[in-house]
Description:
The protein is α+β, with helices and mostly antiparallel strands. Helix content is 56%, strand content 21%. Strands 1-5-4-3-2 form a 5-stranded antiparallel beta sheet, covered by helices on one side. Strand 2 and strand 3 form a beta hairpin. The longest helix has 30 residues. The radius of gyration is 22 Å and the shape is elongated. The mean pLDDT is 86.
Amino acid sequence: MSENLKLRLRFYSVCNKSTATIKKEFEDLKATVEPDYKIKMHDNHIWFTIDVLKREKYSPHLHIEMEEMEDGNTAINGLYGPDPVLWTFFMFLHFIIAGIFIIFSIIAYSKWKLNQKIFLDVTIMTAMVIFWFALYFFARYNRKRGIPQMEKLDELMKKVITT
């Protein structure tokens, strides 16, 4: 797998097969990899995930969208991403941290204008910034841990797309 994929989790490629052929080949692949991987299809969308028994909190999933081109080829847009439940949880934490930061910045400003002590408020705001950075680095660390599984999902996809 190229270094490019590790940095850019979106990709675009063109396959010289029709969408119907690709769907059929993914159906065949689904039967062979079923215990270890889950492949779900709906219309021109395909989702690859690691089986629940082998999934970790950092396990990625792959979403592919196929689009029929005028020349009979298929445009493929792909996205590697975190588990949707984990992503939602991270977004929830980001909004909570941002909300606490904004509330305490308003309180600190009000106390500052009233010439009151703002040490506790500024401390809480600083803690929120530190938590925000900690979430960022934790997410980067988990993405790095998920690269081997991302490579396996990439190999599965390429069995159909490149042949």
